[in-house]
Design brief:
Length: 459
């Protein structure tokens, strides 16, 4: 079925089959976080969507036949400013922020390098950091200058956009529209208002590195060159899939394409470009000014990560998503039903009924609909597993909920035994009193047909 995977390509504006450049091996890149502050809920969407794609590719091609690079931007203006405010180095700031980021996304069921990489084998997943790839960035910049696609001006190195005749093919923006936007931030040293920075001089106190292009002063990279360098280092001059949020199409991804193609003379940087849609909160664009800016950590304080993941996947990745409390509640109820139905079953073979819609441009709403129809516990477990869901057994999930709640399990069991004794004596008043005491503890009890009583901790 691997050859049947079709994905919507932003470059062609059409669904296209994935045809790996290296037969039987897939190379994929996704733009990751800028680690200056806590991730917000909008950041979680591409992480979940492209984690799903990574899982699907591993299922189709094999665990050793997929290489996934998801970068970390650990130097930019915001990082520099935040580190200066705290009187720490940018590495100290970004190490701490990245650790929090990893903790948050692991709770969403997102795979990290330690989860998939096997010692002695080529890495399946790489998380390159920008500051570890300065040598690759300066090498690319020097090649662009030598090829006449970049120039030095006032201690900056800029990409010469008019030197690339088909610049703008990815975003398909009219030239006059791009020029109008560029003039907002025009600089006197630019040859064209569209030219963008590859390298800039560092301000006093900012981190700096030896500059390319024969510049005497130390400096630091522009944003766009980072991804071109890291993708080249880990995936090559041309690779299969480049992914990110729709807000990155222009200028970031457009500029990545320009840098990479002009540096290596290749017709494309990546064969397929995938972009997820925007996220709104309760029908409004998320912004701090509206007071609806929600961090991922704040959401995870109230909801299990698996609920957040399912809530995201209920909307097709290319469509806008409205992030609502109702959606989280529905996702929570759905997971409760699935865990009840799957019990402690081991997953069976992946059901074709769930796999087929995923092969059609990651159609998660249709795939989830098929999961709902699965009656066999092993098939339900496997079908949900394709989406990164039902990662625990019913028993383990219940135990984890008890541990997280702080409920005294021994006290609950004691009260249930007393309630059972009261029911045997037909002392219904005492039975109801004990049920009320359990409810006050945050526990729901269920009397089963076989005479046993089970209990769960309320969300």
């Amino acid at each position: 079925m691997a050859s049947l995977l079709r994905l919507y390509n932003t470059l062609s504006r059409a669904k296209e089959p994935l045809r790996p450049i290296d037969s039987g091996r897939v190379r994929m890149y996704a733009c990751g976080p800028t680690v200056y502050d806590a991730a917000h809920i909008g950041n979680a969407r591409p992480l979940i969507v492209f984690d799903l794609l990574f899982r699907l590719l591993r299922h189709l091609y094999g665990a050793d036949a997929v290489t996934y690079a998801r970068n970390v931007t650990d130097v930019d203006d915001k990082i520099n400013a935040r580190a200066a405010e705290r009187s720490i180095t940018i590495r100290e700031l970004t190490d701490g922020t990245l650790a929090q980021f990893h903790d948050d996304i692991r709770r969403l069921g997102i795979l990290l390098p330690d989860d998939v990489n096997v010692p002695g084998r080529p890495p399946a997943m790489i998380e390159p950091r920008a500051t570890d790839h300065i040598v690759e960035m300066t090498a690319l910049i020097d090649r662009l200058v030598a090829a006449g696609h970049a120039y030095v001006a006032e201690d900056h190195v800029l990409f010469d956009v008019p030197s690339m005749p088909d610049y703008g093919a990815l975003s398909r923006r009219p030239l006059d529209e791009m020029e109008a936007g560029a003039r907002v931030d025009v600089a006197p040293y630019k040859r064209s208002p569209l030219d963008f920075v590859l390298w800039k001089p560092s301000k006093p106190g900012e981190p700096s590195w030896p500059s390319p292009g024969g510049i005497g002063v130390a400096g630091r990279p522009g944003w766009h060159i980072e991804c071109s360098a890291m993708a080249w280092k880990h995936l090559g001059e041309t690779f299969d899939i480049h992914a990110g949020g729709i807000d990155l199409v222009f200028p970031h991804h457009e500029n990545e394409v320009a840098q990479t193609r002009c540096c290596f003379g290749t017709p494309v940087m990546a064969n397929l470009w995938l972009h997820n849609g925007f996220l709104q909160v309760e029908g409004e664009k998320m912004s701090k000014s509206l007071g609806n800016f929600v961090t991922l950590r704040e959401v995870l304080a109230d909801w299990p990560g698996e609920v957040v993941r399912l809530a995201m996947l209920r909307t097709h990745y290319r469509q806008p998503i409205d992030w609502t409390l109702r959606g989280l509640e529905e996702a929570s109820r759905t997971l409760d039903r699935w865990y009840e139905a799957a019990g402690d079953a081991e997953p069976g073979p992946a059901p074709d009924s769930v796999l087929e819609p995923l092969l059609d441009d990651l159609n998660t709403p249709a795939a989830l609909g098929e999961v709902h129809r699965l009656a066999d516990p092993a098939s339900l477990k496997a079908g949900a597993g394709l989406l990164g869901l039902l990662g625990q057994t019913k028993s383990a999930r219940a135990q984890a909920a008890v541990a997280a709640s702080g409920v005294d399990a021994a006290e609950v069991e004691r009260l249930i035994a007393e309630r059972k004794d009261a029911r045997t004596r037909k002392d219904w008043a005492e039975s109801d009193r004990i049920r009320g005491a359990l409810t006050a503890l945050g526990v729901t009890v269920k009397d089963n047909k076989d005479g046993t009583t089970s209990w769960t901790v309320n969300p």
